[in-house]
Amino acid sequence: EVHLVESGGGVERPGGSLRLSCEASGFSFDDFDMNWVRQVPGKGLEWVLGINWNGDKIGYADSVKGRFTISRDNAKNRLYLQMNSLRAEDTALYYCARGMYMDVWGKGATVAVSS
Amino acid sequence: DIQMTQSPSSLSASVGDRVTITCRASQDIYNYLAWFQQKPGKAPKSLIYAASSLQSGVPSKFSGSGSETDFTLTISSLQPEDFATYYCQQYDNYPYTFGQGTKLEIK
Questions:
Q1: pLDDT tens digits, A61-110
Q2: Contact (CB<8Å) B34/A105
Q3: Is B6 in CB contact (< 8 Å) with chain A?
Q4: Cβ A45–B1 below 8 Å, yes or no?
Q5: How far apart are CA B48 and CA B72, in angstroms?
Q6: d(CA A63, CA A65)
Q7: Confidence class for position A47, pLDDT limits 50, 70, 90
Q8: Would you place residue B80 in the very low, low, confident or very high pLDDT band (cuts 50, 70, 90)?
Q9: CA-CA distances (angstroms) from residue A95 to A22, B21, B81?
């Protein structure tokens, strides 16, 4: 069965850093682009970053450019989100999602940025 | 960046009704358009990709149409489990973007 499981969320102070991980199983991870999408509770979905199958094409939302990076380790079937210079407005539930049209989603990891 | 505008933002309907949600892109995205359903406390669920292709396991009461800049999601014969929030998303170019969502409520 196809699964995505996010981990690494938590509480961090403004200006701090966190690293999220997404473990994929049940499919050939290196056949797919991958994405990070976030959602503030009660609000809509915001696409944050995407990466192609081998990591040589990456896209960013303006809201995170220069602060967040996406990477992947195909040998480990893992997707990563490195979040630096965190702000209060980065507080959200972060999902990883498979493919350009995001046919599979994890359950999400909560990130809270607060002093 | 490509802006995605959904309408309406909210919609009240009754069980058995047929409803249509529209999504407009700020530029031509061909058919690189997906639709999602999200229920409270749950991750989004993929319904449709390539504007009109139904994801595996999604009932045929859901249908999508459109191309270039104008797209629709139609849900026929509404059932209680269909009341949720629906989002469109373009994947023509980075940065990908979502519509603001349409909350479908029971009348």
A1: 999 999 999 999 999 999 999 999 999 999 999 999 999 999 999 999 99
A2: no
A3: no
A4: no
A5: 11
A6: 6
A7: very high
A8: very high
A9: 9, 25, 23
- The answer to whether the CB atoms of B94 and A59 lie below 8 A apart is yes
pLDDT bucket at B37, cuts 50 / 70 / 90: very high
The sign of the dihedral angle between the CA atoms of B39, A33, A73, A66 is: negative
E-assigned strand segments in chain B: 4-7, 10-13, 19-25, 33-38, 45-49, 53-54, 62-67, 70-75, 85-90, 97-98, 102-106
Measured in angstroms, the CA of B101 and the nearest CA of chain A are apart by 6
| Residue B87 bridge partners (DSSP) | B36
- Nearest CA-CA partner of B4 in B18, B30, B31, B22: B22
The rounded distance, in Å, linking the Cα atoms of B41 and A28 is 28
Closest CA–CA distance from residue A48 to any residue of chain B (Å): 8
Alpha-carbon distance B65 to B50, whole Å? 9
What does the buried/exposed string (b/e) look like for B58-95 if buried means 16 or more CB atoms within 10 Å of the residue's CB?
Answer: beeebbbebeebebbbebeebeeebbbbbbbbbbbebb
Look up residue A47 and give its two tokens. Answer: 């696409």
Report the alpha-carbon distance of residue A61 to residue A114 in Å, rounded: 22
Verify whether the Cβ–Cβ distance B44 to A61 is below 8 Å: no
